[in-house]
Write a structure and sequence with these properties.
Blueprint (H helix, E strand, L loop, with lengths): L4 H8 L3 H8 L7 H14 L5 H8 L4 E7 L8 H16 L3 E7 L3 H12 L5 E5 L6 H9 L3 E4 L10 E4 L1 H14 L4 E6 L5 H15 L7 E6 L4 H13 L6 E4 L2 H13 L9 E6 L2 H4 L6 E4 L2 H16 L8 E4 L2 E3 L10
Parallel strand pairs: 1-2, 1-3, 3-4, 4-5, 5-11, 6-7, 6-8, 8-9, 9-10
Antiparallel strand pairs: 10-12
Helix pairs in contact: 1-2, 1-3, 5-13, 8-9, 10-11
C-alpha cells in the first residue's frame, strides 16, 4: 500500500497540512520541521504524487517539441542528435520532454494550439524556423514561453541559438575555389526555411568573389533528404552546366548526391567534389568520407533547452541571442578540379 501524507503526519505527530507544506518547501515551515518531515518520508518510502503537485503549482514541468517533418518515416539523424541534447538537458533540469511530429501547415498549428489550451506543456522549443514563421507569430500572440534553434526575418525579440550558416558556406566556397573549382552547383533546401536563406547567401557571396575568375553557379532546390539529394544530383549531371563540385546544404542531400555521382561511374573527390553541412555521424563514415561544415547539433539542443528553462524560471539569461561560428571539416570527398 502506498505511503500517504497522513502516514507521515502520524509518524511525527504533525498535521497533514504541515507535512504537505514542508515537502513543497513553503517558507512558513521551519528548516528543522522540513528536515524532520523529509527524513520520515524517506524512512517510510513515500513517493510524491507528481501529477497532483504539478496541478497545484499550475505548471506541468514539461517542455514541448513538435518536429516539422513529412511522412511516417522518421530517420533524420539531425533531429535525433538535437532531440538527445534537448532531452538530456530537460531531464537534468527536472523537466519532461513531450515530442510529436506534424507536417508544416494546418496540422502543425493545431498541435500548438491544442497543447497550449490543454495546458499540456509549459513552453516550446522551435526548430527549423521559417522566414515568416506562423509558430513563432502564434506563440508571441499567446505570450507563451518558447526558445528557438534558428532566426526569422524581422524583429528578433525571443531567445534563440543559431549557427552562422552564411559564414559556413562561404568557407566551403573558398575551400573549393582554392582547389581550382569554378563551376559549382548548389543543392538548396526549401527557401522558406531561414537557415536555407543564410546558407545560399554564403554560397552567393563566395561565388561573387569568383566572378572575375570565371566562376559559375547553378542552384537547384531539394527537400533535405538523402533521396532528394540523389534525385537532384541526377538532374545536375544531366544538365549541360557540368559542375566540377556539388555543394549540398545538408549532409543527407550530399550523401544522396554521392550515390548518384558514383552510379554514373564518376569518382567522388577526383572527378566531382561534394560537400555537405551539419557533420552528422554518418558523414565521417560515408564512402568517401564527406567534407562538411561542423554544426554541434547535440550541444545546440542543450543550449536551446537551457534558454527555455531560464525563461520558464524567470531567470535573466546573460545572452538570449547566441550565434555560433562554424568550422570546416575537410575529408576525402573533395579534391582538385579535374584537368
Amino acid at each position: 500500500m502506498a505511503v500517504t501524507l497522513k502516514d507521515i503526519a502520524k509518524k511525527i505527530g504533525k498535521t497533514t497540512t504541515t507535512v504537505s507544506r514542508a515537502l513543497n518547501d513553503y517558507d512558513d515551515i521551519g528548516p528543522e520541521t522540513k528536515e524532520l518531515v523529509r527524513n520520515a518520508a524517506d524512512e517510510l518510502g513515500y513517493i510524491p504524487n507528481t501529477l497532483a503537485r504539478r496541478l497545484q503549482k499550475r505548471r506541468t514541468d514539461t517542455i514541448g517539441l513538435i518536429l516539422p517533418t513529412f511522412g511516417p518515416r522518421f530517420s533524420d539523424p539531425f533531429f535525433s542528435e538535437f532531440l538527445a541534447g534537448v532531452g538530456n538537458k530537460a531531464a537534468a533540469g527536472g523537466y519532461d520532454l513531450l515530442v510529436s511530429t506534424r507536417p508544416p501547415g494546418e496540422q502543425e498549428m493545431q498541435a500548438y494550439q491544442s497543447n497550449i489550451l490543454s495546458h499540456r506543456v509549459d513552453g516550446f522549443i522551435i526548430v527549423r524556423t521559417r522566414a515568416d514563421d506562423p509558430r513563432i507569430n502564434y506563440l508571441r500572440k499567446m505570450n507563451f514561453p518558447f526558445a528557438s534553434f534558428g532566426r526569422v526575418e524581422g524583429v528578433l525579440d525571443f531567445p534563440y541559438i543559431d549557427e552562422d550558416s552564411a559564414n559556413g558556406m562561404l568557407r566551403v566556397i573558398e575551400y573549393l575555389s582554392g582547389l581550382g573549382h569554378r563551376r559549382i552547383a548548389c543543392i538548396s533546401p526549401p527557401l522558406e526555411l531561414m537557415f536555407a536563406r543564410h546558407r545560399i547567401k554564403g554560397v552567393k557571396e563566395g561565388m561573387d568573389r569568383l566572378r572575375s575568375q570565371g566562376g559559375e553557379l547553378l542552384i537547384v532546390e531539394s527537400d533535405l533528404t538523402q533521396r532528394g539529394g540523389y534525385q537532384t544530383a541526377n538532374i545536375l549531371l544531366d544538365n549541360s552546366f557540368s559542375p566540377t563540385a556539388i555543394v549540398a546544404c545538408n549532409d543527407l542531400m550530399a550523401i544522396g548526391a554521392m550515390s548518384a555521382v558514383q552510379e554514373r561511374g564518376f569518382v567522388v573527390g577526383k572527378d566531382i567534389s561534394i560537400t555537405g553541412f551539419d557533420n552528422i555521424p554518418m558523414a565521417e563514415h560515408s564512402h568517401p568520407p564527406l567534407t562538411t561544415v561542423n554544426q554541434p547539433i547535440y550541444q545546440i539542443g542543450t543550449m536551446a533547452c537551457e534558454l527555455l528553462i531560464q525563461v520558464l524560471r524567470g531567470e535573466v539569461a546573460e545572452k538570449q541571442e547566441i550565434i555560433l561560428q562554424p568550422s570546416l571539416i575537410v575529408r576525402q570527398s573533395c579534391g582538385p578540379t579535374p584537368e
